[in-house]
């Protein structure tokens, strides 16, 4: 993070003629994240409401430009799980706002290392227990459910709270590091995971504590009464399907909170996808 004592000088350079200087200033200001307004006050820097609004607009534009520029890169990744991680990592960087936030990769690596050091054997059930009972990753409460940050894997790991698709993505990506067979299940209205264990496929509800269900048991639930086990297996999905669903969630979340700039950005990113179901969460 930049030295708070330099804030007065940085603000004077906001309107510099050089785009290189302006980008440097915005990079330094971005390093303060949500603490920027507090640091301005602590340093005795007098800033009008108009100036603070200008700073936040400029920082928002910078983040949107960076995401738009970097977005096409993940489509070229060949491995499906690495592709998923690349896309969700870009979104996490955008949503985190601060440039010094730990990367999704480093956080997932740490979870995998902690799991390996505390488990003699590796399997999908014990990984679910580790993530959702030992590390206490849990479903977001109703009041905070549509917070865009619940899609940010770095935030979800740090705050231990997320929505079904972000929790399942963490389970999938940590499992990938461990060589475990875990896939996404694009179930309508509530994203799930498939886990293979001892030659059998289970449904895993990461939002509800990593609950394991046999396919036949899942089809007997009221909400899934008309869905056959074979139909459910057809819902296994790849990285692009997961990312498209994540983006739709973000469009909805930003619309709910009135952030039109970010809603439009997520809608534009969706334009790179074709013929993928309109499902959320």
Low-confidence stretches: none
**Can you count the beta strands?**
7
Per CATH, the architecture of the largest domain is Roll
Radius of gyration: 21 Å
Give the strand content. 5-15%
The domain count comes to: 2
Shape: elongated
Mean pLDDT: 86
Calculate the terminal CA-CA distance, rounded to whole Å. Answer: 34 Å
CATH topology of the largest domain: C8orf32 fold
Helix-strand makeup class: alpha+beta
Fraction of helical residues: 40-55%
**What sequence of helices (H) and strands (E) makes up the elements?**
HHHHHHHEHEHEEEEHHEHH
Q: Give me the number of helical elements.
A: 13
* Main beta sheet: 5 strands, antiparallel
CATH class of the largest domain: Alpha Beta
The strands making up the biggest β-sheet line up spatially as 6-5-4-3-7
């Amino acid at each position: 993070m930049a030295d708070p004592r330099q804030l007065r000088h940085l603000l004077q350079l906001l309107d510099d003629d050089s785009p290189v200087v302006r980008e440097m200033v915005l990079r330094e200001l971005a390093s303060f994240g949500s603490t920027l307004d507090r640091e301005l006050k602590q340093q005795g820097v007098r800033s009008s409401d108009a100036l603070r609004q200008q700073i936040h607009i400029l920082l928002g534009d910078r983040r949107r430009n960076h995401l738009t520029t970097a977005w096409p890169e993940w489509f070229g990744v060949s491995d499906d799980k690495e592709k998923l991680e690349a896309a969700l990592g870009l979104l996490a960087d955008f949503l985190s706002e601060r440039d010094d936030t730990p990367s999704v990769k480093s956080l997932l690596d740490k979870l995998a290392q902690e799991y390996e050091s505390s488990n003699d054997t590796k399997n999908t059930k014990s990984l679910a227990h580790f993530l959702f009972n030992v590390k206490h990753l849990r479903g977001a409460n109703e009041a905070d459910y549509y917070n865009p940050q619940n899609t940010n894997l770095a935030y979800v790991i740090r705050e231990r709270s997320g929505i079904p698709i972000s929790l399942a993505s963490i389970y999938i990506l940590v499992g990938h590091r461990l060589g475990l067979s875990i896939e996404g299940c694009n179930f309508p209205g509530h994203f799930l995971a498939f886990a293979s264990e001892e030659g059998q496929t289970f449904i895993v509800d990461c939002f509800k504590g990593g609950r394991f269900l046999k396919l036949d048991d899942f089809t007997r639930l009221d909400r899934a009464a008309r869905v056959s086990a074979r139909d459910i297996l057809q819902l296994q999905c790849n990285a692009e399907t997961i990312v498209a669903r994540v983006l739709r969630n973000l469009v909805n979340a930003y619309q709910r909170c009135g952030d039109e700039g970010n809603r439009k950005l997520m809608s534009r990113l969706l334009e790179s996808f074709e013929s993928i179901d309109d499902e959320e969460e």
